[in-house]
Every structure is written in structure tokens, then in C-alpha cells.
Amino acid sequence: MKFSFRLKDPVCSVLLRVVILIVLENLEVDCRLTGSSASLGDGCDWTGSGLSVSEVDDISGRGVTPVYLRCSQGHLEWLYPRGALRVLLRLGASGRDFRGCVKVSGSFSGAHIFLEGPRSLLPLFSSQENGDAPQQLARCFQSRDGQAALYVEATSSRSVIHKQVAAFSYDLQPLPRGRSYYDSQEDCRPCSPDEMIRLYCTSDFVARGIITGVFNNEALARSEIATRVSTVYRQLQPVFKPHNMSAFEYSLQEEMEAFSVVTNVLVDSTTSNANTSFIPRYLYGTLYVPLHCGAKHGPGEFIFMGRFILDDPVLTCAPRLDDWLEVRRMAIQEGSAQCSLET
Question: Which of 5, 79, 148, 159 is surrounded by the most beta carbons within 10 Å?
């Protein structure tokens, strides 16, 4: 279908494009929209270009490219944005509802991001924001019926040809079973003994240390917890590092002491025993928790456990050392540990 007039109202243009795409999707039309780039990525990530979208398709709304992503984490990169993308997010084939968050790249340009609501499009991010909200701020939303649709609309006209890249990362976290809505207090409650054991074995980072300070970052809606750790059990990406100098510079110091780096292994693994590397006695790292949790600077040692969300190390559980040792003792006694529980 082609239109003999140009829609001047951007809201009407956006809504028309969404309606056309939804109708095609509901009719299960298996086609590739004229002038659009490939609609399927590898399930987690997608990269495409808008240069192939024709001017006629851009005006009529047929320049909307459907993108289907089925992973809990991933990345989208749209070069030379033209027309629009409708990005459908799902947690695999589980059908579970989730809380999703997106964070745009530092060089994001050339597009707006909307969340498709039941009756209208809700703005998530604009490349023309005036600085009221920093780009590093994660924009979060909740799925409906196991999915969420993001509408990414290009802002550039076809007469402007210069490189722009609209890129963002996304993270989807399933809601607790039996829960149909996101409860912000779930981020703040203490971990149960069973959760401590599970998170110790599955977290992206686990370390033993103390809290040296807490800074509340209002702009990014998070608290930044400064830590000093004496033992790292696991870190899939570097979280805890030497303070204010490189590891090589530390190695030149005579007062360097042994620091325990423990590799966590499954109970039935044939991997050799934990090893000790000679690096500085203490390492330092900053962990994040939501601002509404009201994190405080507490005394004593903790076991820090967490995961990377949009490349940030987010603290998900931090029992005091004495509490952890008791939970660990009970798990070993009952044989319920899923991995080797080091101290």
C-alpha cells in the first residue's frame, strides 16, 4: 500500500508504522519488507544498516524492519538509521514475563527509542536529549504476555548522509514465578541461605572483603559501593583491581604480599585445587545497587556476590562473613552444595 501524501505529524507516522507491522505479524506473513535490512539476528544480537530503505518505503511506513531477539542479554547496532525497527524481546521460548533494561552506547545518534505500550508509544530515549538524563542511565520496563516491543525510529532525513550509529545493549531478568509484576524491593531484601549457596556457585563475581564507602549517584539512580577485597573467588570480567597503579607497578614493590585468587569449581570436577598468585594483598572495586535500596556503609567483612548487568557489576547478595560461614557449614554438612565452597 502506498500513500499519495506525506505524513507531517511524527506521532501519527510512528503509530502508522507500528500498526502496519503488527497487522503483518498477526497475519503471519512470511516476507521481507521492501527495502529493509535482514530482520533476524543470531537470537541475541543484531547488526544492520538503514541505507537500503528507499524513500518511498520511508514515507509509507513499509521501511519498518522487524527484529526478533530471544536471549536474556544482547546488543543491537543500527548503522545509518533510516525508517524504523520494531525489536521484539522475549526470554527464549519460556513465555515468562520479565523486567527489561536497555543502555545506549556513548556514541548513540540518529534515532529515538520508544516502548510499545497497550495504547501508545512511550519514549525511552532520544538522541536529542538535552542532558537532563545521562546516556549511561539504564531505561527499564516490564514485559506484557512474555514479550516487549521496542520501536526504534530514525531521526535523519535521507538528504543527510553521514555516519550515525544507534546502538544499545539490553538485559532481561525473569520475574519470580507466580509474580506478574516487578517488585523493586526484591532488589533490596537479604538473601536466604539457599540463595547464598546458589549465588555463590553461579554469580559472575564472588569476593571476600569490606566496604570502604558508599556514594549515592542520583543521576544514575544507583548507589556506588567502594570495596576492598582480600580474596577473589571468581570474576568473569575484571571488577577488583589494584588501586591507583597497574599490577606490573605493584610487582616492583618490595612490600608486595600474597593475595589469594581462588578458582571456584564444581564438586565433581577434576580441576586441580585452588591456586594462589602473587599479586597485591588487596584489590579494589566498585559495585552497584539500586538507589532505592538505601545502601549503608557497614563494618566487618562480607562475601560480595553479583552479576554483570549492561556491563556494570551489580551486587545481588552480600552476607556478612560470619553468616556465610554458618550457611557454608550447614551446606557442607547436608551435602547440598553445588560447587566447592571456598573460604
Answer: 148
Longest dimension (CA), the chain: 79
pLDDT in tens, 180-219: 788 888 889 999 999 999 999 999 999 999 999 999 999 9
Q: Are 34 and 11 in contact (CB under 8 A)?
A: no
**Which pTM was predicted?**
0.74
Hey, which bits of the chain come out as E strands? 46-49, 64-69, 73-79, 84-90, 98-104, 111-116, 121-126, 139-142, 147-154, 165-174, 205-217, 222-235, 259-261, 276-277, 283-290, 301-309, 312-317
321: amino acid identity, one letter: L
CA torsion sign for 43, 46, 52, 53 is positive
**What is the DSSP secondary structure assignment for residue 26, as one 8-state letter?**
H
Q: Which segment of 30-34, 109-113, 210-214 scores lowest on mean pLDDT?
A: 30-34
CA-based nearest residue to 197, from 43, 101, 42, 303: 303
CA triple 241-243-245, angle to 5 deg: 100
Is residue 59 over pLDDT 80? no
Neighbours of 147 (CB within 10 A): 16
- Give the type of residue at 164: Q
The DSSP symbol for 93 reads T
Owner of C-alpha cell 556514541: 107
Helix then strand then coil, % of the chain, to nearest 5? 15, 35, 45
DSSP H stretches of helix in 27-114: 55-60
3-class DSSP state of 305:
strand
User: What one-character DSSP code corresponds to residue 217?
Assistant: E
Q: Percent of the chain beyond pLDDT 90?
A: 52
Q: Look at residues 85, 73, 34, 86 and name the one whose alpha carbon lies nearest to residue 57.
A: 34
